[in-house]
Design brief:
The chain is mainly alpha-helical and 422 residues long. It is built from 15 helices and no strands. The longest helix is centred in the middle third of the chain and has 51 residues, at 140-190.
Amino acid sequence: MRSAAATPPGHTGFSYGYIIVIAGLLISIAMWGSRQSFAVFFGPLLDEFGWHRGPTSAAFSLTWIGTGILAIFVGRLNDRFGPRVIMTVAGCFVGLGCILISTLDSMWQLFLYYGVINIGMSASLIPIMSTVARWFVRQRALMSGIVLAGTGVALMVVVPISNLLVANYGWRMSYAIVGGATLVIMIISSQFLRRDPQQLGQRPRGHDAAGTPHAGAPVSGLTATQALRTGQLPLLAAVYFCTYFLFYVIIAHAVLYATGNNVPLAQAVTVLSVVGVTGIAGRVLMGMLADRSGYQRTMVSSGVLVLAAFALLLISPSIWMMYAFAALFGFGHGGLGTMESPMTAHIFGMRSHGTILGMVFAVDTLGGALGPILAGFVFDEMQSYTLVIQLCVLVAAVNLVAILFLRPVQQPPQHPARRMRR
């Protein structure tokens, strides 16, 4: 057993946690880039196969549900075994899924191959965020935001690159290129991951020598079973159901919404790029604000921005209003997305963080699945996105109200012998 004296305080010297953050950022860019590029491939798929938007959106959406269900089990595995092996396997699934999509000839294959991608994504998201939470206390929200900024980088860089690839090489070759790059980046980056600071004789950053955390969440906490008995777990899950319902409506339909309002395709893709750029700013700046001013206050501010963004689209579908929407939505969603892992730790502690985060993620994937498919079928029925935007305003308002009721759960006392066994 390592003596206390052999373990240096986590706030002195170089923390390997920063390497974890860099690796997590690279994985996040590759993983989200492969998924969010669907907005670029959506149109070519419809043109080549003559499919309707509703069923095609369903392929994008329904396989996302399996991602959430698997995330619960992946969270448990990460709590026990760590992220390196899990993330290596995940990279293989995500990359292979994209490569397989380049060969598809029928709708059932689209469902199957997106299922392969989402198995990889379910094995990716929870280990990254739970591992970052274990390495940082004082800067937990900021570092989570930096890793999740990969979502914005993907929108800003990977999606436009995918659009250029499609224009020059066709959608099949482009999907194969995206898949190959994703596989290589995720596998290499995964080799730098370590489950927690104790493996390298360090302490979490922001954890003093006496073992007292400086920020929101204590090292102890609730088990997954205890968390299920609280009202806060379903409330937090509802917040992220709404958050990702809105996000994936935009990811799947923003380009089609813009082109349907006479915006050129190249300009329509830049709307997603604006969401990406402001999303990066929102994740980093809101992460800094959360560490200094409180998690709930940051989430409320973010929720207000998201609600205001959708309200703008009700005023006018002009390109400039779309850019204003993209800026507000990207920044607000960035703040909300950043807070999912830190807020889970803040409310329930770190004892079963990966498992509880997996439960929250399982519900938010239901929102992410329902949003695009519902928007697709509404458009097919109404031949307009007006009702979809009105629905999004309602969901954003419900989300903001739910955020106001989030509270930390009182941590139960732990028996010393139980801590020794763990």
